[in-house]
Structure to design on (103 residues):
């Protein structure tokens, strides 16, 4: 998976066996008028860029960054509010390629 923003992989630097906890609104799962307006305002730089994820994308980012999923749950239907807990694998030593230039 190519990461559009290097900051997504920043949690990689957690120590081995460290726990990452996140609650994320997965705005790509739905397309309401508010989300479309937010996207438009971001493109014209009225508001800062906000990366929108689907739950499956968020899980993939966590897994490819060297974490094992411990628990996950959707806390809200609209917008999907995705709670996840992941543990950093001891085996993973190098950060993922977030440049999009994977060999």
């Amino acid at each position: 998976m190519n990461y559009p923003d290097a900051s997504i992989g920043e949690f990689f630097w957690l120590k081995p066996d460290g726990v990452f906890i996140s609650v994320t609104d997965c705005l790509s799962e739905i397309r309401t008028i508010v989300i479309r307006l937010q996207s438009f305002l971001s493109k014209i730089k009225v508001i800062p860029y906000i990366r929108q994820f689907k739950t499956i994308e968020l899980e993939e980012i966590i897994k490819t960054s060297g974490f094992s999923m411990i628990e996950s749950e959707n806390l809200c239907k609209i917008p999907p509010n995705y709670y996840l807990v992941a543990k950093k694998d001891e085996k993973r030593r190098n950060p993922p390629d977030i440049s999009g230039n994977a060999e």
The first strand starts at residue 19 and ends at 25. The first helix runs from residue 33 to 43. Residues 1-7 have pLDDT under 50 and may be disordered.
